[in-house]
Write a structure and sequence with these properties.
Strand order of the largest sheet: 6-10-8-9
Radius of gyration: 24 Å
CATH architecture of the largest domain: Sandwich
Strand content: 15-25%
Mean pLDDT: 78
Number of helices: 13
CATH topology of the largest domain: Jelly Rolls
CATH class of the largest domain: Mainly Beta
Oligomer: single chain
Structural class: alpha+beta
Shape: globular
Number of domains: 3
């Protein structure tokens, strides 16, 4: 009996690079059959499940419940349209999620935000997004990365007044008052979306609830400033940093940027010291003490909270001032 001659196997290629069907190398003939079979009607292609995943570091990738070979050209084109539109100025979902913490938005209001014309700018780490005294003509929305508000003293010392996360508007003050009284700097590589002031005025005029949500956002900034003032003025170093770590988790979780009890914190100990009014040595010792007490682990800029209740008690942290509604509070998670 003659044996079938083994066929040469080839990977199936797609626009995103080399792909394999069901994790196996397949022949060109089989690849052609798979591609031909995937040419279905538009209605059938819509039923295939796929999603776009945007990493915290700004890299875009997509994953699907079906293999790449099973995607028809319409789906592949739509996936790449969404990925490429991130660089063309699509409103990030983080802002919409943040504003919906303050008021419910209708579909037309969401569309008004998501389709607003905007310009994209990539900002390298450790550089200014906005300088003190600037009078920008557009609103800067942080889409990716971490930034901070700060002021420099005459002797060169820096005071950080707030950490900014994806979904935060960097210069809403200039939208109303015209001039920035502080600077904004990128702590990590950032992507910033610029929306012209006139465009934002038109959106608010047509959709007043968006203006109300932005007003509530400024009230949230004020509440955070009051907590930070209390931190620097009255709390110990241990309490300050414990409070800060709790606050950042709640803010990131509200915009979908946490993974369970962990989150990325791309800041240095110098940044924490400038925000909390502490020396670098003091920050280092305090973080070591928090680790030794079994409250957190910190490695490669990733914070993992090991005991939420004790960390909140250590920082005297009450999330009520944030007016945010996480999907699941950390205290509930530790009680499960």
């Amino acid at each position: 009996m003659l044996r079938e001659r083994p066929r040469k196997r080839w990977p199936l290629f797609c626009h995103a690079g080399a792909w394999r069907h069901s994790n196996k190398l397949i022949s060109p003939r089989s690849a052609a059959k798979i591609v031909a079979a995937s040419q279905k009607t538009r209605e059938e292609s819509r039923r295939s499940q796929w999603r776009v995943d945007t990493r915290v570091d700004g890299s875009g990738s997509f994953a699907s419940s079906t293999s790449a070979a099973e995607l028809c050209p319409i789906q592949v084109g739509l996936i790449w349209y969404i990925i490429l539109n991130r660089s063309n100025g699509v409103m990030p979902i983080s802002l919409v999620r943040k504003l919906e913490q303050f008021t419910s938005l209708s579909d037309p209001e969401r569309r008004a935000l998501q389709t607003a014309p905007m310009r994209v700018r990539d900002v390298p780490a450790r550089s200014d997004l906005i300088a003190e005294g600037d009078c920008p003509g557009d609103v800067s929305l942080l889409s990716e990365g971490f930034a901070c508000r700060y002021k420099l003293l005459g002797d060169g010392r820096r005071q950080i007044m707030a950490f900014l996360i994806p979904g935060d508007i960097c210069d809403l003050r200039a939208f109303l008052l015209g001039r920035m009284d502080h600077a904004v700097a990128a702590l990590s590589r950032c992507q910033v979306l610029h929306i012209p002031h006139q465009t934002l005025f038109e959106i608010i005029e047509k959709h007043p609830r968006i203006g109300f949500a932005l007003w509530r956002d400024t009230m949230l900034d004020g509440a955070i400033y009051r907590q930070w003032l209390t931190n620097v003025g009255r709390r110990s170093a241990y309490q300050r940093i414990a409070h800060l770590l709790c606050e950042i988790w709640w803010r990131l979780q509200a915009v979908g940027r946490t993974r369970g009890d962990s989150y990325e914190l791309p800041v240095t100990q110098t940044d924490i010291g400038d925000a909390m009014g502490l020396s670098v040595v003091h920050v280092n010792r305090t973080l070591q003490q928090l680790r030794a007490d079994g409250l957190i682990s910190l490695r490669s800029n990733v914070v993992v909270v090991l005991n939420w209740r004790q960390l909140q008690d250590a920082g005297e942290f009450d999330p009520a001032y944030l007016q945010l509604q996480p999907q699941l509070t950390p205290v509930q998670r530790t009680d499960v």
